[in-house]
Amino acid sequence: MRITGTGHASMFIETAAGSILCDPWVNPAYFASWFPFPDNSQLDWGTLGQADYLYVSHLHRDHFDEENLSEHISKETTVLLPEYPTSELETELRALGFHKFIKTVSEEIVELPGGVKVMIQALTSPTDGPIGDSSLWVEDADGTRMLNQNDARPTDMSVFLQHGKIHAHLLQFSGAIWFPMVYELPDNAKRAFGKQKRERGFDRSLRYIDDVKGDWVFPIAGPPCFLDDSLYQFNDVFGDEGNIFPDQMAYVDWLEEQGRKQNIILLPGSVAEISADGSASVVHPVDDLREWFDNKKQHLDEYKERMQPRLEAEKASWSHPEIDVLETLRERIEPLMAQAEHIATGIGGPVRFDLTAPDSDQVVESIVFDFLERKIYPDDGAKVRYRFRTERRLIEHLLHIREVDWVNSLFLSCRFTAARIGQYNEYVYAFFKCLSEERLQYAEGWYAEQRPDDEDITVQGWQFQRRCPHLKADLSVFGKVEDGVLTCQMHGWKWNLKSGKCMTSVGHDIRSCPAEEAPAS
């Protein structure tokens, strides 16, 4: 099996059944804040686009690049489609001209011509990507197997392992979020939170690596890079231990410190050969890989200069002063708030957006989303639980293009600041991810169906429910207990075991007690 790196989570896989192009992201995403790192625009996308199969893991715009898919990927390629609860991914691909689909069933093997088998596991909670994320397992005709986990976070890896040993395991290791950088916190607090998040991301990836026990590990799906002057500080080139966007070399160095030596970095154009006997080789488009990463800032600065015209063009498209933001929000969003019984209850209060002039901190309009009254109105000075500050033109643009997912646009852009009273509230982001009736109804149904888990486990003198209240991760695998605090290493959520209270987010308490006080079964 041959795997050619094509940037970020993208790769070109060659098998006995032909080629599979995965997640071909090239163009800037999230209000032109994210760019692929390293630069992959020099690749021959016209040739790569003639792949026999296309796999788009999910709708995040660093995986679903509408422009590249439209302009360079053959519409005669066959799409390997994950089984998602909504039809959005298929609808968007069909709108671009794709018309050949293999509609997979989650965790069921499909055999392609030539004896190659593929399996896609679809994750479908409201917090998995934009209503869904997925991983691709491939077994070549000679028995070589790879798992492209990309940035999905499965709670159970056994479905991939029951069919034989994995020879190549490709997974995310770097941050892909806006926390803690955008929060209005002291620098030392941001650095501490960032360091914790960076370490947790590394630890989580190592848990997956140890579960899969693949012959070779490929770090992929990050980091992005930031080429706009206002965001450049997010690049990991300043020696900040709290930076959540470490690069592939930093991660591989850490893996080797943990004793995991069989790692392969893919630059755009790197070609790796993987065999069923566990052997592997790789050829890079540069002579010295470490030297290339040592010169990372130089590469970023040159990349930034090349992309400056694109950045300016993107920014020029955002302003739509003809849009009455408040009235348009009322018209489109209030009906959704009225339907959001579980999510609105979970938010439990007002959320305010302070809208500023372009490239300025001057607030020109403040709008409140009141999830108790299910109304949107001008700020009246009342206390709010969440506050976001962003440029008005960004909201104008979201309304202009009828964006249904502000998480997969505004929030991932990091072009905002945030403050909150109390703990993180996942329902806030669930709502702003579900600004369409289809998405909202699915998310509401998902939350409505959640029930307490009846099975308990005992760990280090504490008895608590086996399934994480957040995303049902198995706490016998992902749970860690220290000083009476339970941490789910899947996403880093914490609980006080004495009280059962969630220390991370409201509305997710756990059933727990000292083991000696547990009722007899």
Automatic annotation (TrEMBL):
Domain Rieske: 464-521
Keywords of this entry: 2Fe-2S, Iron, Iron-sulfur, Metal-binding
Highest rank taxon of the organism: Bacteria
Protein name: Rieske 2Fe-2S domain-containing protein
Organism the protein comes from: Glycomyces niveus
Lineage, highest ranks first: Bacteria, Bacillati, Actinomycetota, Actinomycetes, Glycomycetales
